[in-house]
Design a protein that fits this description.
133 residues, mainly beta, 34% strand
């Protein structure tokens, strides 16, 4: 992404997954734990976060209220153009981070396969694997 959802957040903010493919935003406000769960959505190459649940000190917070709404307004990130004509198809959050599956048509590797002579040279030079020239 061109910028991170974590950029500019307070140092005590954590952004783990919620175990269901959504982002959990956790921090303390006035000494109380605040948790917001947000679904990441993909539209074209733009990822946005939409709150689906929120609580302060384990008490539910109205998502339609101005504070939650204002906090997420403008929280969109535009993905850079992907290589080889790939286009993102979905977005979710896992314990490893944000996952963006992509799809493309008529994708061909940009490297050519080494011919037998190149492979033989690599074997004689002691290099393992196949290098592409």
């Amino acid at each position: 992404m061109t910028s991170s959802y974590g950029a500019g957040l307070c140092p005590d903010t954590s952004l783990p997954d919620d175990g269901h493919g959504r982002l959990r935003i956790q921090r303390r406000v006035l000494g109380l734990p605040l948790t917001v769960t947000a679904q990441l959505r993909l539209s074209g190459r733009t990822v946005s976060a939409v709150p689906v649940a929120a609580s302060v000190a384990a008490l539910p917070v109205d998502l339609a209220g101005p504070r939650v709404n204002d906090a997420f307004t403008g929280q969109r990130r535009t993905l850079p153009k992907l290589p080889a004509g790939l286009e993102p198809t979905d977005v979710s959050v896992t314990p490893a981070g944000v996952v963006l599956p992509a799809h493309g048509n008529d994708i061909r590797p940009s490297r050519r396969r080494p011919d037998d002579a190149q492979i033989d040279v690599m074997r004689r030079s002691g290099r393992s694997g196949c290098a592409v020239t």
